[in-house]
Structure formats: C-alpha cells, structure tokens
Amino acid sequence: MGGRYTARNTCAVRDKHLLNIYVRYNITPLHSVLIQTSTPTSMKWSYNNIWAKTPLNLINARWETISIKPSSKLVKRCLIIADGWFEWLRTNNSEQPYFFHMNDELFFFAGIYTKYDGVEGCSTITREATLLLSKDHHRMPAIIAVYDSDSWLAGEDVFDSKLSENINCHPFSTIVSSLGNNDKTWVKSLPPNS
Fold it and tell me: Which residues, listed in sequence order, are joined to residue 100 by a DSSP beta bridge?
C-alpha cells in the first residue's frame, strides 16, 4: 500500500459510526486516522513495536510475516475506515499514481495497533494483490467486509477476496504525491501524468 488513502464519504461514517468527520482526500502517515476497535476512535497512523529502541513509524505490515513473528502476540487488532487508496506504479523512469476505490462505499483495512512511548499508533495490514489488481501493484491492503468486522477483531483471519472484485482502479494525477493536497476537485479519473 502506497501510504495514502481517502475517507470522503462522511455521510456513511455518520450513519454507521455516529461520528462527524472532516472529508479527507489525501490521508498521509503520522496523522490521526479513524479506526474501529470495540468503538470508533482516532489514533496516529504510525506503528512501533513496543520493544523498538527508536521509533520505526511503520504504516504497513505484511500479513505473511506478521502472523508468524513472536512480536505479533503483543499487538491488538483494529479496522481502519476508508473508501479508497493510492498506489504508485513504476514505469520506465517515472511513477504513475493509481486510485483504488468502490465508488463512495466505505470499507475496512485490516489493521493492528499498540502503544509506544505512551502514544497509540496503527498500521494497515497488506497482502498479495488479487489477480484482478496485481497488474497495477503486487501488494494491496487486506480488506475486511463489514459482515466480517467483528470476526476480525475477535482474532479470526477473514480476508474477503470477493470484496476486492468490486474495486475500481484508474490513473490519477501526480498532484496526490504532495502531502498538502487535500482537495475534492482532483479525486476523479484523470489521464496518466495529467
């Protein structure tokens, strides 16, 4: 996962989680993000193992390795609330952003969180991309269906590949590469390198 995602559908967040949030078109690492544990809450998108001597500030964790590491026993599970994410595809000497989404539909990224130096932080869990999405990027966030959210939080591994079949993808303006850009006018389909 390329380190950026969106939370644009504020109406769905309000209806489902009874929260009023600001529209966010370019969520970046180290910022406060909306997650679901037993209740919705906010925490920093930056994960650090409790044994780390200095902050690692990890934003992604590979499912294939975290599920076998002893340190994974020290983490808690969460759901990261989103409605789209960005990946950068390397072609020749340039990088083309792509936007992945299910129109305005909310979904969850599987996540983990822990407390480090008194601050709670989270990380998205990634997995190998489905066949449909692998042509654009070899990794993708592990997506949890709404009906599986309680099972994930309870410790079951419930990655729903069928949900991934509903994801749309299109080239996106390189304007997303700038951390400060957070404007609805550019969250639309754009030709490459526009």
Answer: 85, 169
